[in-house]
Protein 1
Amino acid sequence: MSQKLDVVQILLLILGGVPTTLSISLFSFLMGVAIGIPLSFAKTYGGKFPQILVDGYEKIFRGIPELVLLLMFYFGIGYYIPTPFKNAFFTGIFVLGLRSAANQSQVYRGAIRGIGEDQMIVARSLGLSKLLSIVYVMIPQVFMFSTPGLGSEYALLIKDSAYLFFLPGITEMLEIANGIRKATGVTTTPYLIAAFLYILLTFPIATWLDKWGSRKKKQLGM
Amino acid sequence: MNIVIECQNLWKIYGKIVAVKNVSLKVSEGEIKLLFGPSGSGKSTFLRCLAMLTTPTKGEVFLRGEQLTKENAELDKARARIGFVFQHIWLFRHLTAVGNVELGLKRVLKLPRQKAKERAMKALREVRMEDWANHHPAQLSGGQQQRVGIARALAMEPDIMLLDEPTSALDPELTGEVIDTLRDLAKKGMTMLIVSHEMPFAREVAEEMIFFDEGTVIEKGEPERFFTNPRSERAQKFMARLIKRTRRE
């Protein structure tokens, strides 16, 4: 790389990492939804055994630093099961997704409490099974109640995608910023620009989500 | 006459609290029975036990002769045949009026979309709410919400409607429209068990009134008797209070 990169060039280079950063965050977020929703309902409506399992899951994935999990899955488990764990992109999404599920489960549980028992009772009174009641009555409302928590969870995932810097073979934003510093000796600008982009990727969406949720809740009188 | 719903020696006990104490009751096809009594006397719990929304501690419930209080009873199917209207209305807040009514039709009775919509609109027409079909509950008054609640139960074409104080959460000026709706249902021969303290309405439509206190049936009989000459002292006192209140209103 040339020694004389100006700010715009640095910005353009780092922008090249945005798709990776964004897709890691987005896919792990979706994985968190897919696992977090069943976890939250299992803990609320399941018996004692599911409750203990979910509790254990949450404690493990919220308690262990993400970096430890990432390195453990990539180098540790990846050593024995190289496909797919030696793929940094996959392992990044997988680990952040599992962690996010633990967080999201708690967010959804708060929402379920906020919605109250009545909606479930009415659904059952119409003859809907527990599962159908959850799918058609509870889940749509759970999302409306969860938007503030989901906004911060999404922001957290954007930030945590930077941990993938420590895995080889993946070029998200921090990796590129750091590469520029190494190649050019420009020590501050690349990180500042990366920092700026992280903020740009998190807050507008998180804030919009929060506002959308509040508006929706107000409209529906929740 | 065909018995639609029946319970025998029904008990519901929460720890040390006996909410329902040894109640036996029958409602036959086309009958309207009215359950009344002081608040906290276990009427709601009893009604929920009948619909198997709460599992009774002891005793039996039968829906058209089919025992619901046995293992492997198909409770979801049974609940679909029992229309339940709740005191606090409880519409699905994320769905429009017609969405509320359609849900059971689509997901329980598995009607195709178009058919469900038609039947939901028909039910809304019956409670005179078709013009509000696309409004969310938050945009409706309490009385309108309760009429949607009734349409939701009605659309399932239940064998019986259980109504738990359908007007008590409403402002007095809104109870009239709900009572009118119930009167229409009565005219159409709907089998109903209603918890209510709307005495003029009771006198008009109920075949039998059942006075409930401390979790059990104290006295039952024709409405006229309750208004003129209740036998038990507790019913006498309660009726006197109710009549005084009704006059004040």
Protein 2
Amino acid sequence: MQVVFLISAITSIVAVMLICFFLFSNGIPAIKEIGFADFIFGKEWSPNDAPPLFGIFPMIIGSLYITAGAILIGVPIGILTAVFMAKVCPPVIYKFLKPAVNLLAGIPSVVYGFFGMVVLVPFIRENFDGNGSSILTASILLGLMILPTIIGISEEAIRSVPDTYYEGSMALGASHERSVFRVILPAAKSGILAAIVLGIGRAIGETMAVIMVAGNQARIPEGIFDGVRTLTANIVIEMGYASGLHREALIATGVVLFVFILLINFTFSVMNRRKV
Amino acid sequence: MKTMFKRKKTMDMLVSVLVWCSALITFSALIFLVVYILVNGIPYLKLSLFELEYTSNNVSVVPAIVSTIIMTALSLFIAVPLGIFTAIYLVEYASKSNRLVGIIRITAETLSGIPSIVYGLFGLLFFVIFLGWGFSLVAGSCTLAIMILPLIIRTTEEALKSVPDAFREGSFGLGAGRLRTIFRIILPSAIPGVLAGVILSIGRIVGETAALIYTAGTVAEIPTNVMSSGRTLAVHMYTLSSEGLHVNEAYATAVVLLIIVVGINTLSSVVAKRFTRG
């Protein structure tokens, strides 16, 4: 029976190896054929031209802009909400807030995307430039979507700071706010950083919600009211009809995304190790 | 001295206003989202939406619900035993210095960080094309099974670890073997924790779209067997809203999804509460 347990345990290793093998073996030949520099830094994505151009630089930029926007919006609000939940709000309210955060985490990304499509896009279109599907719209929506990740982990980090820190600071005459922000938050720094890194991972990997609100034009945007296409969106939108080198180029897009995520995971685990 | 004190006081005020505002933004956004979808969707929860047969007129959600249930059951059927056995190996068998344990942990961590579209790509390349399964429920559920595996491993591991060692010692002391101890003593007392993980996984399966479009396909009929293609509720909702022809029905589908999510969350917190109470 121990063998059965061992074999089960090895499945996850096999799975990671299979994923790496199938992605890389299908994607890397395409990158070679297109040329690494032309693929990564090529500014033109026009798979139907003759000759076709497969430059994913606009998508890399798109993913980075939207992720940065989501972090700018989601991180401050998330951390402050975590402070609210851990140190400010009375237990009576907390009983409602905790399930609310869980609900925020549980709502499927299509529902977020749909909400963005019917509420945020028209709002941005009517009040700002452009047609509504833009970097700004996607950043706001993703900022909302990464909130539960940021709140959950930051709250845990804040709660794990020993009470004596707070008491010591209060005893030295610091106010409640000052004790929280100058003593507790710095002590919880590594946990909060981990929350941000996980949030980045979620934002860069999000697909469906982004497709529904970002406009998906494969070009380098000129402002935050321009539409962009992310790496993830590129795959979903064109995979349905792509063939030949086009299809392989999409898989190669997946490889680039995968490498990004591996880097983020690596950073995360290094940070976790340092905490221990 | 006095001005400094005053400045500090205004800082404090400002900071706590910011904290309150952030919390307000977070929770009012959630309430707005939920209420907006309920208000726009509930009027369209008509009987025609729940007809057995899917037509492009009634855009019935019943086939999607059936596909979702089959998909969930299949994925759990694959992932739950694998996940539980892995956790048993990690907690009960492997020694702390075992190199394999470290590698398994790292791979599980890696799996949990991979975005769903990458799983979708892999499922397409491996299950659909390489193994020749085509767009099918099996291909979709195998993909999802790998996706939820790390979640089940982690929750089960934690549940197993929280079983006091005295249970193990007692069981060994009474002459039970290792296997008997695991299946008769340890697993039963860890079940609420395992269940909480399973319920969370159900939530992920129900909400998943990107990993399914190119593995299970988007056929809107009730699937006849596990090799046929079928769209889950979330995929159904995506196709409805991207076609843009049935926005009202998309609202209604969103309501159904929300209800399921709330149900799953309530269930998992009830189970978790029982767990902590012991």
Protein 3
Amino acid sequence: MTHGVSDHPQKAAEFIADSQRAHWHDGALWFVRDKRDAAARSVPEWEQLRETAKQIKAHSLSRLPDYLEEFERKATALGAQVHWARDAQEHNEIVYGILKAGGVRRVVKSKSMLTEECHLNPFLEQHGIEVVDTDLGERIVQLRQEPPSHIVLPAIHIKKEEVGDCFHEHLGTEAGATDPAYLTEAARQHLRERFMQADAGITGVNFAIAETGGFVVCTNEGNADLGVSLPKLHIACMGLEKIIPRAADLGVFLRLLARSATGQPITTYSSHFHGPRADGALHIVLVDNGRSALQQSEEHQRALSCIRCGACLNTCPVYRRSGGHSYETPVPGPIGSILAPSRDPGKYASLPFACSLCGSCTDVCPVKIDIHHQLLTWRRELAESGHLDWKKRWSMRLAGVVLGRVWLYRFAGKAMRTVMPLLPRFLKYNPLNAWGKQRELPPMPRKSFREQYRRRHGK
Amino acid sequence: MKSKTYELCEFLTDVVQVEKLAVQFPHRVGYHQSCHGLRELRLGAASELMPPPDDAAVGNNESKTHRLLRMVEGLELVTLERSDECCGFGGAFAVGEEAVSCMMGQDRIADHQQAGAEVIVANDMSCLMHMDGLIRRQKQNLPVMHIAELLAGNKLPRNGKTQP
Amino acid sequence: MESKQAILQALRSKPIDEQPAPSLQQNWAATPNASDTFEKMVAAVGGNCMRVRNIQDGLAKLSELPCYADAKKICSLVEGVEKADVSLDDIADPHDLEDVDVAIVRGEFGVAENGAVWLTDSGVKHRVIYFIPQHIIVLLGAEQIVHNMHQAYERLRFEQAGFGVFLSGPSKTADIEQSLVIGAHGARSLHVLLLENDGA
């Protein structure tokens, strides 16, 4: 699966080169973070909810195989067909197999990060099936032939002028039109047609309930519901970790999800599917694709608790300024930087370092994943497994040598204090000095703290 | 070791239990909440966390350092648009992700400037070193001070020089 | 089946200490007044909530709503709606509901903290009627408002196959530069008629 190595610092620098745009992007996401704060503040027991959600997820993960079996049993009893896929390839083949058996030519799909992860769209298109993403943001990025840059706000990186151009080209809207209401209306008309023509609907799953065999899909636009209430065939694709034990657990998660994601008290549509429609068929595809390995990892198991609200992306000072595409993975941002290296450590080794360890993600996370601590753990693991580039490897080794020896540390400090003030500027600010590209080095004090302290206290 | 180690302001408020300070600093101060003090040592309430309903102080994003700063005569704390966003230092991050790191630093500095701060004060030398490096490169007039300098009675630095 | 076994085996290859499931019976805060809060929240999520005395007053109120007055095709799941001209049971293919302007439906209960109404397909031949019309009007008993989502799930049982949805306000999107636009794919407007005396 490795196609080159992701280079977050490089991609981020490219994004930031357009400073105005980077600030606009930062501001748009901070606005969402602000809305989240207001929504969370309106719930007096917010922290209690987070703690409860964390415990439910920890419990579910500790009994994951049992709950998956229970879910399959109950879902099957309700008339659904459950499929198991070990990896992306198997998932895609299962979905294609179902569509082929049903003679399906046109599919409408609502937002599903899992199908992004599995690259389902190109797979189905190769087999002659038309797939239309029906979430407005997803439709925009699909028409522009690019991946989403955010898990909840797929087109957050795109300006309305660019949406206008895209719709002018593909949907025939007026040239130069930028009014979001006008453009949304055009998309509504265009996608209504697709809904009417579709032979099948594919959705993701937000939560699957072991005790009932049902599942919940949350949207604001109503696209998932239209997509699976018109055609007779519904395929729901879910990662293994979406399982929760009890229906009542949804009371906790649905209070947290939308407030964390967009600052809404709940999504407009929270749809509960138990079994197929009387005249239809329902298939549920359970996908592993690296999740069982995560579940078996003591360090990173907690990352499977993620409910994909996107709050850690919105709050992340790095994500806001580097854009989702700089991560080159379906789930970007802090949580994505934990998940991606577990699938391909070589390819995604730069992601755990795309973090200043500020810890905001951990405090904003509705299920209390210790995100920034996990990123730190990843750095150690990547170093141990030999996945770091030479610069990082050698600078870390050097720092280890100096910081591990008191005499050497003192000597190095003294040498810096003596030599640095004597060096000409061009020697200090050379191309190897990344610090000095935009920053001055700190002025060197004549004496160290230790020396000053000794002198003052006569010892 | 952890139980015997304190951050300076934590030591002053929790162990020494300082109630009064004989210090004057008649300036508009921008207080930068360093992330590791805030979210690892929990010197204050991070803006992401929601306070229990009866805890008003936490809701104001108030920290132990804030309490000390309020004891300083003449000191006026400015209100930042983002009360506790990271400055972008982050250790090796500062050079490994140079572009993001510097943009984060610039944005923090701009926030202090729009709020009318005469000086940026923080508990963490590395944040200050990073922001000061950006400020000096751009030859802007916004000094930085460590909280210890301010509480020790130092004056506002002039022309990049500490004024004891 | 091979994949199923492989996945389950992978998940069981290392035993994981079972973590206890937390009790959900906690001291969750109630809203000061459930139906008042509900009314406010429906507005906050882009809908419109009106109080009426009873079903007759509710039906009379309909003609005051422009979406109803202007509608050419109306499908009502509530009896006694004068202008209703589409009967769900007479429709074989849900696609034929494409041009319905207004649907008038019954809500089972509402949730104060988020203005959501619980709707189900029980006795409803085509569940798309909740999603396809241009406008939706929900009749709901004022007594049937719970404070929060925990209470909501105490009311719900999912023993039989079926569909249910918490509907909170009209369809919306903010996918273009975070500008909120009402009327993405589903209903462009949502009215809730809150019946003080619900004879139903």
